Records
---
Amino acid sequence: MNTSARNYHAHGGSEWVVGGKLTFLPGAEVEGVEGLFDLPTTELVQAPVVPFIPASEATTVAQLREDINRLLTALKDVGIMATIPVDTTEHVPDTEPPDQTFNP
């Protein structure tokens, strides 16, 4: 039978490696972890707010185009949308399915 311990001492005993579950029983004490579980103290940043844009009442394609462009401009003005095109071709996954031919 071959077993390996998931929790062990390393580096001459100066490091304890935990690869399994670590359970603290009632009354257990942990030293030297001051600040380890503190939440960041940075202030929350207010998300940008897009100004109110009424629902489109366009009756023609040209009017609808104007409404959409007005929305895009508002998104760009508050920084939600990039103002220049971003090249995403490097991140596009392969569009062809992998070859799933089975050859025994």
---
Amino acid sequence: MTFLARLSPDNLRTSFRALADKTSRGKRTVIIAAAAVVAVTAVVTPVVVQNAYAEPAKTGAMASAVSEGSSISAATVQHEAAQTSFDTLALAQMTREKVQGRADLTELDAAIRDLQNNYSPDTATLTRLTDAANKAMDDTDKAAMAHDAAVAEAAAAAAAQAQAAAAALAAANTPDGARAVAQSMMAGRYGWGADQFQCLNSLWSRESGWNYQSYNAGSGATGIPQALPGSKMASAGSDWATNAATQISWGLSYIAGSYGTPCGAWSHSQSSGWY
């Protein structure tokens, strides 16, 4: 039977009745001792969690006083140590629920098991187990806070990245932004310079005005390059309907494959009215 089980109300009531029946000269002393033991049942009732951290120091001071021969009884010291261990156990269990999923619970679980499975009423043992549980709670709380900080940092970084991407998309989706994207893309991918960009600018200014939302109701041609149908541009990206850069990527690829260069496409458009 563990120390906690021995302190159950039924066991303590039986002990008290046996002690109360004694009629020896030491009856008063025995009854007082029994009352001190019965007082320990208070730890089985709702615990005073807020006193959990203060109790170890108090218990240590009382133990010291007993060792120096003060009037404080060993039973009182043991009661204080037991009360503290119960308070700490309750707090450790609540801490476990609070940090679950946010910290490694190995140390805390071990401390909780040690308190629950303790068979000894020894004050030093109770104090040692209580101290270990308090340390485990402190370590676990710190780990949970570090986890929360890392999650918050990652969320902030993701938000900043999303904001930057949204800003870049908004800038690229303006006519001037689309021109800048096209000039950079054609130089990087195809080696086309300023002369080819002049031809491209003339071509797409006439086709769509560099408006990524441009739509020809008569033919169904769509976007900056006036792809027909617009869904052709899905080969360059699933966001073809909302992203000027995706449309430009598809348009440059189409020009390179069909006319060789933007000036070749512009020449054909001037002679035939389409490209």
---
Amino acid sequence: MSNSTSSAQRRQCRGIDHETDPESSLFQPIFVGDMELSHRVVMASLTRLRTNNEQVPLPIVAEYYGQRASVPGTLIVSEATSISQNVGVSHYAPGIWTSEQIGAWRQVRASF
């Protein structure tokens, strides 16, 4: 195809229906359950390894997620979190089995 071929023509040539093409709906609102998201870009889960020795998320975690959730209607899937001291992928992966860890996660949630 030549460079002068339009985007719609390229989609047609690839056999993609323009009305259902994800490129045309990426920034359109969508409902996920009873939540309305203002776009269809989702931040996938990450394991940032930003904890202290007790696997409590550091204040930078709240700042990090707060920055990324600053646009209303944004969906963020939080990082992998150990549910017990006996399980987990890394010593510095965040935990959620102590009151201190749970308190830190509440601060993260409060940041947005």
